């Protein structure tokens, strides 16, 4: 078949991160990897692992976006210490690294993109996804900040790259520690199967729900 005329199956892009800060596993990549090649609502799941490096994560993200041309793109990262799935609401145009990345780089108060808007909102139906996750018995919440580290940078760059693609929904999800990591840090964790199931639910919701649910996911602080 002529590759230029071949109809490609629509795709969903999921990215996870390489381990960082001395950990040997990053649950985000473990969970994303578990959905590689699966078909959800007639969309093929394409996955990519991003380095936990300010400089190289973005070209890797852009390449994955170019290759997959997804209908839904969700970047996933670890937020150690959180006690459930975090549906991130907003990406901000700032990097302020508390620790160096895997390349030893530690930017402070730098913009993600010098000429970019101050912030972008997730275009995923995060409230509807929250309701679905709660219905499935998976701990989850809306998060009002994705931090100021590599995850926020990738979230911001993802939303910036897709800002004119009205038909592509995109956003960011943080997952907590895996159980063994949670025990080592004395912080909350979640089994891998539950994280993978959560991502599948979020993808399905993004592909099927037209307008987001009107339920509170707010916080006082
Ligand atoms: N979590 C970090 C970067 C990579 C990851 O998985 C963050 O939240 O910024």
Strand order of the largest sheet: 2-3-1-4-9-5-8
What's the pLDDT, averaged over the residues? 96
Tally of distinct domains: 1
At the fold tier of CATH, the topology name is Aminopeptidase
Bound molecules: pyroglutamic acid
The tally of strands reads 9
Q: H/E order of the elements? A: EHEEHEEEEHEHEHH
At a glance:
By secondary structure, this protein is an alpha/beta fold.
Task: Please give a structural write-up.
- By secondary structure, the chain is α/β, with parallel strands linked by helices.
- The protein has a single domain, classed as 3-Layer(aba) Sandwich (Aminopeptidase).
- It has helices at 27-33, 54-68, 126-135, 150-161, 179-185, 192-208, and strands at residues 11-17, 39-40, 43-50, 72-78, 85-88, 90-92, 119-121, 140-143, 169-175.
- A hairpin with a 2-residue loop joins β2 (39-40) and β3 (43-50).
- α1 (27-33) packs across α6 (192-208) and α3 packs across α6.
- The longest helix is centred in the C-terminal third of the chain and has 17 residues, at 192-208.
- The protein is globular, with a radius of gyration of 17 Å.
- The chain starts with 10 loop residues before the first strand and ends in a 13-residue tail after the last helix.
- 41% of the residues are buried.
- The mean pLDDT is 96.
- The protein binds pyroglutamic acid (PCA).
Q: Which tags fit this structure?
A:
Aminopeptidase, 7-stranded mixed sheet, two-stranded antiparallel sheet, binds pyroglutamic acid
Topology of this protein?
Blueprint: E1 11-17, H1 27-33, E2 39-40, E3 43-50, H2 54-68, E4 72-78, E5 85-88, E6 90-92, E7 119-121, H3 126-135, E8 140-143, H4 150-161, E9 169-175, H5 179-185, H6 192-208
Helix pairs in contact: 1-6, 2-4, 3-6
